[in-house]
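User: I'm curious whether this sequence folds into something compact or stays loose and floppy. Could you predict its structure so I can see for myself?
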Amino acid sequence: MRLIGMLDSPYVRRVAISLEMLGVPFKHEAVSVFSTFQHYQSINPVVKAPSLVCDDGEVLMDSSLILQFIETTCGKSLWSQNPPELQHEFRAVGLALAACEKSAQIIYERNLRPVSAQHAPWLERVTGQLLAAYAGLEREVQSRPTGFSASRGQAVVTAAVAWQFTQSTLAAIVPANNHPGLLALSERMERLPEFRKYPPVGPGVVATSNSSKATLH
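Assistant: Here's the prediction. I'll summarize afterward.
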């Protein structure tokens, strides 16, 4: 299998780390949806990252659907088998993915639109949603320390990947000091071999620094 996409995308990175934790062999290809658009288009005409090229050549997309397919076929899982705990994990991952989405919307608005075309009310609305997502995720981490103490689980993986992404791009909007639980979680997870093997590298990104600046590419 081939995983297509840049690791400074939190969606690509969560899939790469999850596959590594599950022990599923794959090849990562760092193809950009921006700077190498035509190349990506030749692999997946939709040009959506991540894309997973299966062994038979069929292309899957969307990080959550890719991971659902992988876990179904490999017989392993990064989710709890206990229904109440699984409910909590689904909420945490939902919050983390919402934070990724709102972070990306702000980045695109700032980097792809000229200043004269940027819509301040829209940015204000999305920023409020971003802060609400991280406030909710911080409460999850603080209120469920046992659930977030594990190093192998989709909730902790996605929360840590989302936090690193936002801190590398929008740290001024989401102050780390206001989220001590997420900060500690990120620092712990980023030391794991799976995280270190797939650092959030890309043009303009310094993988070892939480204050690094990412660029669209």
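Summary: The chain has eight helices and four strands. The beta strands are 2-4, 27-29, 51-53, 59-61.
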